[in-house]
């Protein structure tokens, strides 16, 4: 607006200076119209400037609103994330406390069980100890009363073992006698079973086993040879194979008393007393049957 007024003043001054030198080019109306036109242009410029300022202000306000909205959304997102993290941390803390409590309860339960079992074990030990003391006290009183009966039982056992030993010796003599009958002719061949028995008597079970196995290779159904093989295996500590050998001998000849007797002795040493007694009874029955025949 100031620039317009300055321009108008310069034009009027120029017109005034040139009025005396030349003929006026514009009339007063034309000058007034020009002046009004200049004022309108100035107003239009002012209006455009105001509109541009208003548009800039609106754009700035719109940008500020958008920025504020974005900042608010970001704050909400951060707040939600913090709330989620806090909730997860709270749940983790609760789970940790729950697990710690569960382990604590389990440990307490195990400790109580150990205390209970120890108390029960000590109680049982105390009860057993008291029972043993009572049994020992009663046994000291009954010792003299039971002495005659115990002596009788021991005597019976000794006699039974003596009878079994004599029976075994007698059966062995009978079986050996049947095996070692002299043969006709000047040249005699050595009896493998006699050699095996001699090796067994000399406590040489391994050579005896080798000798009898050679004989069994050509005489697989000889019951006496199987008895000698089982005896050699028994002396070598191969009890299972020895029992199988005695069973093989009895399968070949069920009336062979020496097989029953040796098997009974092995079962007795293995603490299989019922089976051993059955074998002894079978041996006695077979020997009695043989004696009657």
What is the fold's blueprint, element by element?
Elements: H1 2-19, H2 28-179, H3 192-201, H4 205-218, H5 223-235, H6 239-252, H7 257-269, H8 273-292
Helix pairs in contact: 2-7, 3-4, 3-5, 4-5, 5-6, 5-7, 6-7, 7-8
Name its key features.
293 residues; rod-shaped; Serine Threonine Protein Phosphatase 5, Tetratricopeptide repeat; mainly alpha
Give an overview in words:
This protein has 293 residues and is an all-alpha fold. Among the domains are: 32 residues, no CATH class; 114 residues, Serine Threonine Protein Phosphatase 5, Tetratricopeptide repeat. It is built from 8 helices and no strands. Helix 3 runs parallel beside helix 5, helix 5 packs parallel to helix 7 and helix 7 packs antiparallel against helix 8. It is rod-shaped, with a radius of gyration of 65 Å. The termini are far apart. About 9% of the residues have low confidence.
Oligomeric form: single chain
What summary fits the major beta sheet? none
Count of DSSP-assigned helices: 8
Helix content: over 70%
- What is the H-and-E element order? HHHHHHHH
**Class of the domain at 163-175 and 192-292 in CATH?**
Mainly Alpha
* N-end to C-end Cα span: 166 Å
Global Rg: 65 Å
Mean of residue pLDDT values: 76
Strand content: under 5%
What structural class results from the helix and strand content?
mainly alpha
CATH superfamily of the domain at 163-175 and 192-292: Tetratricopeptide repeat domain
* CATH-scheme architecture of the domain at 163-175 and 192-292: Alpha Horseshoe
CATH topology group of the domain at 163-175 and 192-292 = Serine Threonine Protein Phosphatase 5, Tetratricopeptide repeat
Number of E-state strands? 0
Low-confidence stretches: 139-150, 177-189
